Amino acid sequence: MPNVSIAGSTKTFEVKEGETLYDSLYEQGEVLPHGCLAGSCGACRVVIVKGKENLMPAGVIEQNTIDSVRSELDPKTSQGIEIRLSCRAKVAGHVTFKPMK
Ligand code: FES
To answer: Are 50 and 41 in contact (CB under 8 A)?
Structure first.
């Protein structure tokens, strides 16, 4: 099973492949910041620190929301960071992330 870690903490979770970041951690008692849980509000945005290749590609709904989130950020500081939505991003391997404020 893949492991998911939260950067800056000692927390690591074993998750089922194909589950979303949010659901897999919620089932283990870790409630991540969230809102709609449907991919449209962006409240669950996270930065992927390691293993971006180990998340399944973003669907249209997730990508549209990521694009909207990114448009609100300073391009100088946000360039090159991998943003995903924990309620939509499905795990396929080891990932380290941190919630985004
Ligand atoms: S909780 Fe709204 S987009 Fe994930």
So the answer is: no
Pocket test for ligand 1, best of 23, 32, 44 (most atoms within 8 A of CB): 44
85 CA to centre of ligand 1 in angstroms: 6
User: What is the value of pTM for the model shown?
Assistant: 0.95
Domains of the chain: 3-99 (3.10.20.30)
User: What is the per-residue pLDDT across 41-97, written as a single tens digit (0 to 9) for each?
Assistant: 999 999 999 999 999 999 999 999 999 999 999 988 888 899 999 999 999 999 999
Measured by CA distance, the residue closest to atom 3 of ligand 1 is 39
Q: Are 87 and 34 in contact (CB under 8 A)?
A: yes
CA–centroid distance, residue 31 to ligand 1 (Å): 13
Atom of ligand 1 nearest to the CA of 35: 1
How far apart CA 89 and CA 30 sit, in angstroms, is: 16
Whether ligand 1 lies within 6 angstroms of the CB of 39 is answered as yes
